[in-house]
Amino acid sequence: MKAYKENQCVIISGESGAGKTEAAKRLMQYIANVSGGTDSSIQQTKDMVLATNPLLESFGNAKTLRNNNSSRFGKYLELQFNSVGEPVGATITNYLLEKSRVVGQIKNERNFHIFYQFTKAAPQSYRDAFGIQQPQSYVYTSRSQCFDVAGMNDAADFNETIEAMRIIGLRQAEQDNIFRVLSAILCARWAKRLDI
């Protein structure tokens, strides 16, 4: 890119469980390490780009029968660099989110990671405000009877998700609104249809 002053493109593809998510993370870490820049705004851009990984994984990945951290969406990431090769911005476009996973999973699969992170590690303030309980209490997180995943720590991952939200610039009120919506989704299964 620096040598030829031309845009570059990397396409990561493969079948389920092939390691696309991990390859993309390693590629982003490599670019952050070699792209230079000691300016604080450059470092902030790098930190924000890297923070998108745990955040998008929390809201877009789930355990499937073939992969404990399966991406259930597609992602197009565009990194912008200045003339000396320092990252100055990024845009992410998500597509094809498997929305049906929210309301149904087969045995030994899980809903999106965020629901287990939130129900297992929500701070007491959220538990009090939104009535959050353990994942066994909700239809959308208990139907498949898969609450834990080998090699994953939902509570630690929740803390990483909160930190990623902070790094990308989500204010506390915005975070509260996100968790308010997640609470509503968890409780929506209990709602009854009213014919008017």
Automatic annotation (TrEMBL):
Gene3D superfamilies: Kinesin motor domain. The keyword Membrane does not apply. The keyword NAD does not apply. GO terms for cellular component: actin cortical patch; cell tip; myosin complex; plasma membrane. Keywords: Actin-binding, ATP-binding, Motor protein, Myosin, Nucleotide-binding. It holds the Pfam family Myosin_head. One of its GO terms (molecular function) is microfilament motor activity. Residues 1-196 form the Myosin motor domain. This is Myosin IC heavy chain. It comes from Coccidioides immitis H538.4.
